[in-house]
Amino acid sequence: MLFPYVATCFRWFGWMNDEWYLKLMFRAKTGKRLNLDNPQTFNEKLQWLKLYDRKEIYTEMVDKYEVKKYVKEKIGSKYIIPTYGVWNHFEDINFEILPDQFVLKTTHDSGGVVICKDKTNFNVEVAKRKINKSLRQKFYLQGREWPYKNVKPRILAEKYMEDNTTKKLHDYKFFCFDGVPKVLLITSDKENKVVEPKSDFFDMDFHHMKLVNGYPNATRCPEKPKMFYRMQELAAELSKNIPQIRVDFYEVDGEIYFGELTFFHWSGMTPFKPEYWDRKFGEWITLPEVSPKG
């Protein structure tokens, strides 16, 4: 099929018109034509929002360092993972002042993460290569996710988080629509290098939804988080007045910590199985009163 090859070639070319690019990528990833004049599905509406819902605050909300200020103002500092430092260049990091365990992240992309569980065995050169590669990436160009366009690439060091009982970091992702959480996504086996990660969706009564998007469901259904209802309240607060956004939290030793805000789950390019859910999620999005032709 020609479309995936062409899309891969074009993804690095910033000169391409955003609308053309998204139409090309949408066809390549989903096999469907992108309807921007009358979008109906979740994935179609995400592409529409990329093009026409562009508020300056969104840039702060996706910056992994700056978003902490936003969250502090909305729900308080107790939910924020402690920060050890932020730097423009890897060479600026003074590893001597960092604790035995920490996490490095790039502020402007997805996936630029290095975890240190034991500083005595930490390979600085390997970390440097990964972080510098992430710093060079123009994440906005990959999916034309506008909020990332003007995020300054930096390196953030945070406290290493792990539940003392399970020795894992439990990640809970709430899909919210104009301040109303509708769906919780739990991803498991993320740290397992042997098997594929698993994804399970739940409604707000924690009923499992027969839905696959990206990863398959887990063989064993994930347990309900202890702070499930408090997370719902916090997600509602962080998502007010936004057509749709995913609000991510961690639960560590019975405490809630903010993870990140995601405007475009899978960049709106991953099919739902069954397709019913693509349309159902789309029904929950009320697009802003903006004329695409205006």
Unreliable runs: 1-7
Biggest sheet statistics: 6 strands, antiparallel
Number of domains: 2
Q: Which strand order spans the largest sheet, edge to edge or round the barrel?
A: 8-7-6-5-9-10
Helix count, DSSP H or I runs of 4 or more residues: 9
What oligomeric arrangement do these chains adopt?
A: single chain
Beta fraction of the residues?
15-25%
Roughly how many Å apart are the termini? 35 Å
Mean pLDDT: 92
What is the CATH first-level class name of the largest domain? Alpha Beta
Please give the structural blueprint.
Blueprint lengths: L1 H9 L7 H13 L11 H11 L3 H7 L4 H9 L7 E5 L14 E5 L6 E4 L7 H13 L2 H5 L11 E5 L10 E8 L2 E9 L9 E6 L4 E2 L18 H11 L6 E8 L2 E8 L13 H8 L11
Antiparallel strand pairs: 1-4, 2-3, 2-4, 5-6, 5-9, 6-7, 7-8, 9-10
Characterise the protein shown here.
With 294 residues, the protein is α+β, with helices and mostly antiparallel strands. It has two domains: 170 residues, D-amino Acid Aminotransferase, Chain A, domain 1; 79 residues, no CATH class. The protein is built from nine helices and ten strands. The strands form two sheets. A six-stranded antiparallel beta sheet has the order 8-7-6-5-9-10. Strands 1-4-2-3 form a four-stranded antiparallel beta sheet. Strand 7 and strand 8 form a beta hairpin. The two termini are 35 Å apart.
Keywords, separated by commas or semicolons:
single chain; 294 residues; alpha+beta; D-amino Acid Aminotransferase, Chain A, domain 1; 2 domains; six-stranded antiparallel β-sheet; four-stranded antiparallel β-sheet; 10 strands; globular; disordered N terminus; Glycosyl transferase; transferase; ATPgrasp_TupA; transferase activity
